[in-house]
Amino acid sequence: MTNWRAERLGQLPPYLFVEIDRKKKEAIAAGKDVINLGIGDPDSPTPEFIVERMSREIHDPANHSYPNGAGHPDFLDACVGFFDRRFGVTPDRTSEVTAVIGSKEAIGHLPLAVVNPGETVLVPDPGYPVYTSATIFAGAIPHLMPLRAGNGWLPDLDAIPAEVAAKARLMFLNYPNNPTGAVADVAFFEKAVAFARKHNILIAHDAAYSEVFFEVRPPSILQVDGAADVAVEFHSLSKSFNMTGWRIGFAVGNASVIAALKSVKDNVDSGQFNAIQRTAADALNHFDHVSVRAMIDLYRERRDIVTAALTECAVTVEKPGASFYVWAKCPIGYTSMDFISMVLDEVGVVLIPGNGFGNCGEGYFRIALTVDADRMREAMARIKTVSW
Ligand SMILES: Cc1ncc(COP(=O)(O)O)c(C=O)c1O
Predict the structure, then answer these.
(1) What is the predicted pLDDT for the residue at 238?
(2) At which of 253, 285, 317 does a domain end?
(3) Distance 173 CA to ligand 1 centre (A)
(4) Under a CB-based contact definition with an 8 Å cutoff, are residues 351 and 179 in contact?
(5) Which domain-ending residue is among 260, 285, 310?
């Protein structure tokens, strides 16, 4: 029988979560009460004011036809308004913003829009796996930039070899960061923009977690003067408003990049349902809504439970300033896989191994703050009983 799978799929890095999934299912089948701290998907529903708006939009026949390629005018206006009020930057609504079907879609399509086969793409390690797969799908070559604790989980741009910088066409960045929870400040973005200018590299900054912050509001790379010459940024309503299933976000920044991304999208999708776009416009217009702040308060409480408990177990961990992930170091002598397997087997708590995000994540594990505080306390109490 012919195997129809294209060769490019064979180039994707191995998917490490298969084994964890198998173990998890085995434990559940054996009747164990498994606590899953692996999933990066909010546990609370979408705020009521958004759901209520959608229930009205869905009845409007004007929303039922094919969407406008670049995005519904209401949605694009809301994106510009959000950017202006949140970051003090006013992108041009027709040339510098486009609606996307979740930031994953935009990240997946961007290399097809801006990178030629054989070119180099700078990808953070550890990092969201889609940067690498999207690069491979475009026939380009990922060059991994190590993120290390000592550098605040930022890439050391000075350490990128000159010959790699010369070949690179695109660099992915992601702050607030998945999986480390690190936040970049404007000074780092200034450095990144200067680097991009010097080497003629486009920066794609993934800001999917920009609104899930605990103390300080994370900046946009577009706050740097002239950043739109060399950068685009991806925003998503998924985590900001507990809307992961709605598939809506936007890309903003360099006009020629937005135009190129739209060209790819015009050929592969027809945009997001207008009812969702108009509802998402309402959400963005209320980005500081009391229900959004309440959601962040829940994550903060869980973050504090997890970091306090891990510290008591002598695990090296820092409180993340943003995102809903806690990134912690495995005890000495354990690989990521050894540690998470032991915890799953002994006490039925699912953690994600750091090396699932790249080799530089080896020796770490990630906890998603997506179960309620009581369940989180229970998970931590169980982990405390494991001896290592
Ligand atoms: C770093 C990062 N970027 C982008 C996404 C995709 O988000 P969405 O496509 O829901 O906007 C995720 C989802 O987990 C993520 O962790």
Answers:
(1) 97
(2) 285
(3) 13
(4) no
(5) 285
* DSSP per-residue letters across 174-204: ESS-TTT-----HHHHHHHHHHHHHHT-EEE
Buried/exposed code over 75-107 (b: 16+ C-beta within 10 A; e: otherwise): bbbbbbbbbeebbebebeeeebbbbbbbbbbbb
pLDDT digits (tens, 9 = 90+) for 341-366: 999 999 999 999 999 999 999 999 99
Does position 53 have pLDDT exceeding 80, yes or no?
yes
pLDDT 10s digits, 187-208: 999 999 999 999 999 999 999 9
The phi, psi pair for 60, rounded to 5°, reads -90, 110
User: pTM score, two decimals?
Assistant: 0.97
Which is the closest atom of ligand 1 to the Cα of 103?
11
Q: Are residues 80 and 35 part of one domain? A: no
Judgement on whether residues 351 and 256 belong to the same structural domain of the protein: no
Instruction: Please give the distance, rounded to the nearest whole angstrom, from the Cα atom of residue 104 to the centre of ligand 1.
Output: 5
Number of domains making up the chain? 2
Residue nearest to atom 14 of ligand 1 (CA): 40
